[in-house]
Specification:
Shape: globular
Mean pLDDT: 92
Structural class: mainly alpha
Order of helices and strands: HHHHHHHHHHHEEH
Number of strands: 2
Length: 334
């Protein structure tokens, strides 16, 4: 395996980590105004993700930084072509972060309700936009021979990409609901449990539709064949196992299954892309690949050494933080 391939895989792993960890954050934020009726209930929901949400966003920053360093031409084309949706994504994440910090600065009901809805919007937009962006990587965008994006904003709003946005949204909401079932208790927990089966049904329908649409709208058939391999098949199986574990009250295992579904979905997308990083709708000769967008061997070598040293430290720290805050939310902290 050359360093170009290694960093392609590492970037895929970073995005998988982000979608799993920040995915349940987004899901909880989207559910917040609808499942928590009273202020103390909303505080419990926020406290469930309070120790983790900012650390989870670091995965996205790291993935973006790794893309910039390892594949600068990919980074340049992606961030210039997808400028408006990525700008909206950034604004949503900023508003969401401010809302978490400002919500409890005043006891007025209107004040807290305002920031609760900011958390909702700041979670909803990224959940949709990320799915749209990643679907477009595989679907294809107008990239010319000089590796420049020559389309407009509405090129990104094709039906396949929009379906990808809906798919990421419903998976994150299901993922977040199961996470809440692991973290809260009492009447609020009962309310969440009533949502799990309907959310699972919607997620199955949308994810299967997106899987079928991927075979119709992209060139995944040419790359992976009729049999896509064990990875996507395992993802479909994991999604159906979510219902099995929920019916037996095994919320922890259900959360593992949604995490596995997200993992396999992202990994399948990267498998279908490889060795490309962005597909050009203007012809295969204009595709961006891990070879025509990569940094030099020296840069990739240094990055690999740094990653081998610091990634285990970061993983150990984040694992420790989840262990420390593993208990259910019982006390309200304002």
């Amino acid at each position: 395996m050359d360093l170009n391939t290694l960093w392609f895989i590492l970037i895929a792993v970073l995005y998988i980590g982000f979608f799993i960890l920040e995915g349940f954050d987004f899901g909880v934020g989207i559910l917040l105004p609808f499942i928590a009726k009273k202020d103390d209930e909303r505080r419990m929901v926020i406290n469930a993700i309070g120790p983790h949400w900012d650390g989870n966003e670091v995965w996205l920053l790291t993935a973006g930084g790794a893309t910039f360093a390892a594949f600068p031409q990919w980074y340049a084309t992606l961030f210039s072509g997808f400028y408006l949706p990525l700008f909206l994504l950034l604004v949503a994440l900023i508003v969401r972060g401010v809302a978490f910090e400002f919500r409890s600065k005043d006891d007025a009901q209107w004040w807290r309700s305002l920031w609760d809805w900011c958390i909702f919007v700041g979670s909803l937009l990224p959940a949709i936009l990320l799915g749209v962006a990643f679907a477009n990587l595989l679907y294809g965008t107008p990239i010319d021979v000089s590796k420049q994006y020559v389309g407009g904003f509405f090129n990104l709003l094709n039906p396949y990409a929009l379906l990808g946005g809906v798919a990421s949204l419903v998976m994150f909401v299901l993922h977040g609901a199961i996470f809440l079932a692991l973290k809260i208790e009492g009447e609020l927990l009962d309310r969440v449990r009533k949502l799990l089966n309907p959310l699972w049904t919607i997620a199955v329908v949308i994810m299967l539709a997106f899987f079928i649409a991927t075979y119709v709208a992209t060139d995944i058939l040419a790359h992976l064949g009729v049999n896509p391999g064990v990875v996507p098949v395992a993802g479909v199986a994991a999604l159906f196992l979510v219902r099995y574990f929920l019916s037996r009250g095994r919320d922890g295992w259900a959360f593992i299954m949604t995490s596995l579904t997200i993992t396999t979905a992202v990994f399948t997308l990267f498998m279908a892309l490889f060795p490309r990083v962005m597909v050009s709708s203007l012809g295969a000769a204009n595709d961006l690949t891990i070879y025509n967008t990569a940094s030099g061997p020296y840069t990739l070598t240094v990055m690999t050494i740094v990653a081998l040293i610091f990634v285990p430290i970061v993983l150990a720290y984040q694992g420790w933080s989840y262990w420390v805050f593993r208990q259910r939310v019982k006390k309200l902290v304002y």
